[in-house]
Amino acid sequence: MKFPSSFSFIFFFVLFGSSARSLSLITGCTTVAQEQSDIQALSSMVTAAHNTVVGVPNAGLTLTQALALHNSLVNLDTAVEKVISDIQAGCTLTSGEAAALAAAIEVFLALLCDIIQVLGTKKAAFQALSIGVIPGLILQDVKMLYADLITFLNLIARVWGPIIPIRFLLILIKAINSL
């Protein structure tokens, strides 16, 4: 399925919205150490979601596993939305702070892109479930996350400059189009 570029920005935003605490450092304009601590908290959440996605079997998916994945994606989306809200609240970073933040963000952006790519490889497992609404529910979660992530990347580029490599956006768009 194909999504417009604005949809992809929204998806990035959703992934980062569920962790309110992890983003508070970004908007709180405290120290780089505090910002890195918040990013580390968000990174831990992304890692947990990644582990959930990777743990989904290619065949024999249970309803419990599918619902756990749904909950993980929704929580991640909520965290992305929170990060977006925090960034919009405003914080001016020095170039050094922006570079430190970008390095931390790059780590979990790679995992976020992998989450989408791995979900694409497990499409058959979702379609094999006896409850037909589950594949649509997971796809809806992924679309929301994708849209928020795109919003997140656009916001970062607008507020802090092009600190995040475009390769993540390209990987994300390719991955979402494979679903």
Strand content: under 5%
- Quaternary organisation of the protein chains: single chain
Q: Write down the Rg.
A: 16 Å
Order of helices and strands: HHHHHHHH
Instruction: Please give the domain count.
Output: 1
Summary keywords:
179 residues, mainly alpha, 8 helices, disordered N terminus
Q: How would the blueprint of this fold be written?
A:
Blueprint: H1 5-15, H2 20-28, H3 32-55, H4 63-89, H5 95-121, H6 123-127, H7 133-160, H8 166-177
Report on this model:
The protein is an all-alpha fold and 179 residues long. It has one domain. Helices cover 80% and strands 0% of the residues. The protein is built from 8 helices and no strands. Helix 2 (20-28) packs antiparallel against helix 3 (32-55). The protein is elongated. Mean pLDDT is 71; it is low at 1-29.
What can be said about this structure in brief?
Residues 1-22 form the signal peptide. With 179 residues, the chain is mainly alpha-helical.
